[in-house]
């Protein structure tokens, strides 16, 4: 199933059809669909997939893909990346390929810091003059930005393009679902996020809780262990502390002090762990919406829906799943899933808000006594949003409470808009509220059109 990815596909097709050499960096979270996209777009290319094997083993495995193309002896072994690129260059000169994809390429410089410098020399001397297209594809954005996109990288200034593949937004993700109720769409997205592989797992169900029981709370299903797989490889040296921190954040601890207290970490060390999680983009840091450099303390949260669900409900209770107590765990989840999904509903509302207002930047704002879920500015119009994931209909009281917060917001922003537009998002609809030019009422029927 190939849904959306139109912009990404057009970007790659344009690069692949150019007459000059291209060095492209494709990156994004694991399972986001990078490899599927490349296989869909890149035709007749050489595909190599890296892992944490030693350099010698890896380069010889790559060489095996070339041997038959240029009639190399099957027993041939190499011991340097110089040799590998020499044989790869022979294959290119022989017209055997015009595109080279190295997937999970971040593992190579991680194990061998000479790789990119050697590639740089071959790029300058040979590849850049031959019209060949190189695509380096990697997971974990922070790591890729550091080793391939920063000014200190050997290939800085040589890349001809880069594209971060993000999870699908809710509008496109919803096309995978077939649930009977609109609420189930939100609940499902709070577990799968916009990750195509997870969306496919839930795509054949009409009930969210049936999908949850069969695809996550059943022994042997890959989503039971997926969270551990995604994170353990990055934290082999100290996994227990990272897992404790992620569990604390998933359970609503958002400040360094709260996270340290909940996880049992020493306060003096928590910053180092959070920095690493930020680098890998497993955790994000949020500060109040501002028109200048924010001064208030940041909140930390797990931006990935599946990992947030995993560290709240699966990792702490995995033993229950393997003991066949999935039904009991399901009842436990039902008790608090609404609280978990409220964060997701706010994220979905923000996506809708940005699309319909046209603001480029939108975020939460708060001070000591007030909080506004969504704030954005465009063309001197202030847009503010309130999100209510409750069983109670939104009424005039909610709107008036939002209006009362505006003076505090404007004082903090040091800003005077020409107009203010209010967006109210509600799980359960509205009571005695009518839309106008400056009041927009958004229920699930608008967020999830038929």
Automatic annotation (TrEMBL):
One of its GO terms (molecular function) is ATP binding. It comes from the Bacteria. InterPro entries: ArsR-like_HTH, ATPase_dom, DUF234, P-loop_NTPase, Restrct_endonuc-II-like, WH-like_DNA-bd_sf, WH_DNA-bd_sf. Residues 310-394 form the DUF234 domain. Residues 2-201 form the ATPase domain. This is ATPase domain-containing protein. The lineage of its organism: Bacteria, Thermotogati, Thermotogota, Thermotogae, Thermotogales.
